[in-house]
Design a protein that fits this description.
The structure holds two protein chains of two kinds. By secondary structure, chain A is mainly alpha-helical. Chain A has three helices and two strands. The chains are: A mainly alpha, B mainly alpha. At the A-B interface, α1, β2, α2 and α3 of A face α5, α9, α10 and α12 of B.
């Protein structure tokens, strides 16, 4: 198999470092316990931060899944096209 | 769950409609495929040919059960904004998939795996490791199934206001599930999941719409009410809760990704592209599923305040009653919604049951009892055992043992112990069978004993996570200590899974 065209997430350390950082942002350990003001649109300030990190996590994983993972896709899709052409 | 005053015979009608639709889908997915019952891969994995729509919805409907609504809304009600964690811990599952699914998919296609234990067996060639892993998986699956069966009865009987008694409801829906699964295997499970997943998604949105209508379309008024009455539910949680939050992310992330039925969906994917696209969409589902359920729970605090713990468990039913009272439209929508909850529970239960059957077929009967049996017989053994297992679980559900009940609660805690063997084994050639076995056993015992003795968490960290840490440690340190000379043949085998 051609090594260069393969993208496997486990081989890229930065993917996991970024993931851990985002997950740490997802937990409110870094904010003062008990505080909730200001409320913005009825939602406590800290919850906005957590929601932001949650959406960031969704987007990051969705992106990484599509863009950083490509092992046999090209071969499989080529084979499929081949079958269609037969 | 409380009896819903809004539904009687109407609820029966809607539930019957759901049941008929499931049966029809099951019938058609099994029809016309003569090889379906003659081949384990065809029956248990839909011939490893699930396309994008079916794969996405079967991942979705399996991961999110009716319990996600019935159970998570009350948790949000009781804990307040700290339950935002339910978005994170459902999302991180995709991150854990990313850790092992890419390579496992390729290996599973190459070596034609049916169950997760196929991989464990191939990698470690140790009866002890395989048997322990299979037992942990069956135990976890069995308990998971038990929980879903109980939930089906509660949801269905409360929807019909007791018109259908709890036990009749369970039996009726279990029969429907068994019939369509018997007829169509994974195909039936996946195609019914499309229907079940869709009604669940729509149901949550409509329910939230009704709840928002009741608070006058104003979320702010709800949180102002909470600020005046129970400000703790708005505030940043204590450090202990944050630790527990992180522990929950680890437990659910590692546990849910390694669920046998979840792993088998990787095996069943038609192609890498299909699998990637499905996961990529799944990553966005938590905000619009557990996230919306969280909002429903928060609105519940303002709508129906001061429920005690037992009372809050009825929250979804109580809110549904109020929403149904708005007008005729919401009345019918609520009945359909409750039907959707039942359907969503069934859609999780069917996947778990199928996985259970496949493990019995492939890992117990075929591997240890009668390896030379024809495939058709292997499939049949799994099916029949599945039906028997459901019978036993129903018996346990109706006559819960007075003691030892806790061991029927262990799911993630035990299942997650398979993780080190499963994932480290993919990448680390040095990993050896013996330390893997002892690590798995130690992790399971630690998790079991801690839960059993009432120490579900220690300083906020779950027993399952503590067990997992010990498990990793033993497996890794042990593998460094044991010097195993791999034979040339074994080296060749390991090369097969090395994609570089």
């Amino acid at each position: 198999m051609d090594n260069k065209s393969i993208k496997e997430p486990i081989r890229k350390k930065w993917i996991w470092i970024v993931l851990v950082l985002i997950v740490l942002g997802n937990v409110p350990w870094y904010m003062p316990a008990g505080s909730y003001e200001p409320l913005i649109l009825g939602i406590p300030y800290w919850a906005w931060i957590i929601i932001g990190f949650s959406l960031l996590l969704c987007g990051y994983l969705s992106w990484a899944t599509l863009k950083q993972w490509n092992i046999v896709e090209d071969a499989e899709e080529a084979e499929k096209r081949g079958e269609l052409n037969d | 769950m409380t009896d819903l005053t809004f539904a009687g015979i109407d609820g029966v009608l809607i539930l019957s409609a759901y049941a008929v639709i499931m049966l029809v889908i099951g019938y058609f997915s099994g029809r016309g495929d003569k090889t379906l019952h003659d081949n384990m891969s065809n029956y248990y994995l839909a011939g490893k040919n699930l396309g994008f729509v079916a794969l996405f919805f079967t991942l979705y409907a399996t991961q999110y059960s009716g319990n996600t609504i019935i159970g998570y809304a009350p948790t949000a009600y009781r804990t307040g904004f700290a339950w935002l964690q339910s978005i994170t811990f459902m999302t991180i599952i995709i991150g854990v998939y990313l850790l092992f699914a890419p390579r496992l998919y390729v290996v599973s296609k190459k070596l034609n795996f049916i169950t997760p234990a196929d991989w464990i067996t191939y990698r470690f060639k140790s009866k002890a490791v395989t048997i322990l892993a299979v037992l942990l998986m069956l135990w976890g699956l069995g308990n998971y199934l038990l929980e879903q069966l109980v939930a089906i009865g509660q949801a269905a009987s409360s929807l019909t206001g007791g018109t259908i008694p709890y036990q009749v409801a369970v039996i009726a829906f279990v029969l429907v599930m068994l019939i369509y699964e018997w007829l169509g295997g994974m195909k039936a499970v996946a195609f019914t999941d499309v229907m079940q997943g869709l009604v669940l998604m729509v149901g949550i949105v409509v329910f939230l719409g009704g709840a928002l209508y009741l608070v006058g379309g104003n979320f702010t008024s709800a949180t102002e009410f909470i600020a005046n009455t129970e400000p703790a539910k708005l505030g940043v949680p204590e450090m202990m809760t944050s630790v527990n939050w992180l522990s929950m992310i680890l437990l659910v992330g590692f546990g849910a990704a390694i669920y046998p039925h979840a792993v088998q969906r990787i095996f069943a994917a038609e192609s890498e592209r299909t699998l990637k696209r499905s996961f990529s969409r799944m990553a966005w589902m938590p905000p619009i599923t557990t996230g919306l359920v969280f909002v429903i729970g928060i609105l519940g605090i303002a709508l129906i305040p001061n429920l005690n713990e037992a009372g809050s468990e009825q929250l979804v039913g109580l809110m549904a009653n109020e929403i149904a009272g708005i007008n005729g439209f919401f009345y019918w929508v609520m009945i359909i919604f409750f039907g959707a909850i039942v359907a969503a529970i069934v859609s999780t239960a069917d996947s778990v049951l199928l996985s259970f059957s496949s493990i019995v077929s492939n890992d117990i009967y075929s591997r240890f009892i009668n390896p030379n049996a024809p495939e058709r017989k292997k499939v049949m053994v799994g099916k029949v055992t599945g039906v028997l297992a459901v019978g036993v679980l129903l018996w346990i559900a109706w006559y819960p043992p007075a003691t030892l009940y806790e061991i029927f609660v262990l799911k993630f805690e035990l299942l997650v112990q398979v993780f080190p063997a499963f994932v480290l084994g993919l990448y680390w050639k040095r990993m050896a069978a013996q330390p893997v076995f002892w690590g798995m056993l130690a992790g399971a015992v630690i998790a079991g004993v801690l839960t059993w003795t009432g120490h579900k968490t220690v300083f906020g960290v779950h027993g399952g996570v503590i067990g997992l840490a010990a498990n990793f440690l033993i497996a890794v340190v042990g593998s460094y200590l044991v010097t195993v000379e791999a034979t040339e043949e074994e080296k060749e085998e390991l090369k097969k899974i090395d994609l570089a």
